[in-house]
Amino acid sequence: MPNTLSIVEDPQPDDGNNEYLYQQFTLKGISLDIRAMADDERFTLDKMMERDCNIPISQCTFTVYKNAMPFCWDLNGEGVAFRASTRASTGQFTIWVPEGGHEVYIDHLRRLALSKAFAREFNALIADPKYWFDFSPTTLFESESLDITSSEHSWSFLEPAVSSNGSAKYGHSYTDVNSGIVDGPTSLAAEAFTHFTFERSKGRFMVSNLVADVENYLNLKSSTIHTLDNERLGSLDSNKHERGFESFFSSHHCNNVQQCLAEHET
């Protein structure tokens, strides 16, 4: 499909700089099939944990408005990013170009799918909604379509933008960077969730290092998954496998959210 390009005014230009214009593109990409994850028994958490081919990924077409100039932001300290919006949503988005090749990008989607599936089961076991959370959707598309790539970066991600107040990272007690809310609901839920994913997967997976928008702690932006199988999500540098499990449990202490989980299971 040819990409259609036009320049339109940024509805909220930064400092009146005329470089902040949006470029409009119609793109094809791939994303998680959220409906299949929710309704199709072929894509349950158990089956997704069995093998990668059970993680539903579908094609999509969408219109995106990209800022002409990149800005200095990246959730994981890698790559380049652009502000963006879409025709289908009034929210703000970010286009970011990660390091790595095609397998890395697909593993990013697989990681998101597993994280969302674990979160769905976790939420179902917790009665109090203040401990519930979900992971933001991400779409993967070819960067060449937007003229923002080099030979090393052929794909890009589109995902909801982090607010101007930034993000907070949760994993376990010594990695929580937001010291003022260490005992808050999100911190407690995040630590309980990480332990839950390890127990639920019978020691095969662990979702940790959760990154949330400061203005919306229930909407997580990113995570790390450590896997027992060295081949699963093996292209992701953040996957430390058994060393990741050991790192978490070296400082982990069960909290009241986990006690609620234990009571439910018994």
UniProtKB/TrEMBL annotation:
Any one Gene Ontology BP term: response to differentiation-inducing factor 1
Domain (Alpha-type protein kinase): residue spans on this chain: 35-266
PROSITE patterns in alphabetical order: ALPHA_KINASE (PS51158)
GO molecular function, one term: ATP binding
One family name in Pfam for this protein: Alpha_kinase
InterPro entries in the record: a-kinase_dom (IPR004166), Alpha-type_PK (IPR051852), Kinase-like_dom_sf (IPR011009)
Gene3D superfamilies found in the cross-reference section: MHCK/EF2 kinase (3.20.200.10), Phosphorylase Kinase, domain 1 (3.30.200.20)
Keywords: ATP-binding, Kinase, Nucleotide-binding, Serine/threonine-protein kinase, Transferase
Signal peptide: none
The UniProt record lists the keyword Transferase: yes
Listed PANTHER family: EUKARYOTIC ELONGATION FACTOR 2 KINASE, EUKARYOTIC ELONGATION FACTOR 2 KINASE-RELATED
Protein name: Alpha-type protein kinase domain-containing protein
Organism encoding this protein: Drechslerella dactyloides (Nematode-trapping fungus)
Lineage, highest ranks first: Eukaryota, Fungi, Dikarya, Ascomycota, Pezizomycotina
